[in-house]
Specification:
With 157 residues, this protein is mostly helical. The protein has 8 helices and no strands. Helix 3 crosses helix 7 and helix 7 packs across helix 8. Bound molecules: heme C.
């Protein structure tokens, strides 16, 4: 009696194999793709590029230009800026959080100050903007995370 129903279960599993197999395969594929994707974002910038660009255009482009070139003598370029391409992003985060005046960006003294954004933008916003600046117009700076910005915010408060 028991062995009979057991045999039926095994039999139905075997006969249903062709129906189960594609499902199992699809799940396996999904799992592999997901872990591959997660793997490939480690070490690379995993920031939201579209968000970074939109925020940059809304808050920074008026002075620094959509092309990151700034306005000679009035607003410094972000494109090719030493601060923005340097691996250590401490100063980059500090400037965006707290602003800057008389800082001699790229060796030039600017009469206009750089406004602070720590009060109006979140850590995630600032990280996305910074990563956008660090990976646009030929810039290759090490990206930051919202956690890095939060830590910098705490340190310089
Ligand atoms: C009202 C104009 C203005 C706006 C808006 C503005 N900046 Fe600036 N920014 C400046 C000025 C002026 C300086 C140079 C200040 C100095 O040298 O003292 C500067 C400097 C900088 C620097 C340093 C560049 C270097 O090479 O040292 C960075 C980085 C920067 N700004 C990023 C941003 C970001 C990111 C935003 C938007 C969230 C932004 N700025 C918005 C005017 C502006």
């Amino acid at each position: 009696m028991f062995s009979g129903s057991w045999r039926i279960t095994v039999l139905s599993m075997v006969t249903n194999m062709h129906r189960i197999a594609p499902y199992v395969l699809a799940r396996l594929l999904m799992f592999c793709c997901a872990s591959l994707l997660a793997e490939s974002s480690v070490g690379q910038s995993s920031y939201d590029a579209a968000r970074g660009q939109a925020l940059y255009i809304a808050h920074c482009a008026a002075c620094h230009g959509t092309d990151g070139a700034g306005h000679p003598g009035t607003f410094p370029p972000i494109k090719g800026s030493r601060m923005v391409t340097k691996d250590d992003a401490t100063n980059h985060m500090r400037v965006v959080l707290h602003g800057m005046q008389g800082g001699k960006a790229g060796g030039v003294v600017y009469a206009t100050p750089m406004p602070p954004f720590g009060g109006s933008l979140t850590d995630a916003d600032i990280a996305d903007i910074i990563d956008y600046e660090r990976s646009s117009w030929g810039n290759h700076g090490k990206p930051v995370t919202a956690g890095d910005v939060a830590a910098q915010r705490r340190k310089s408060q």
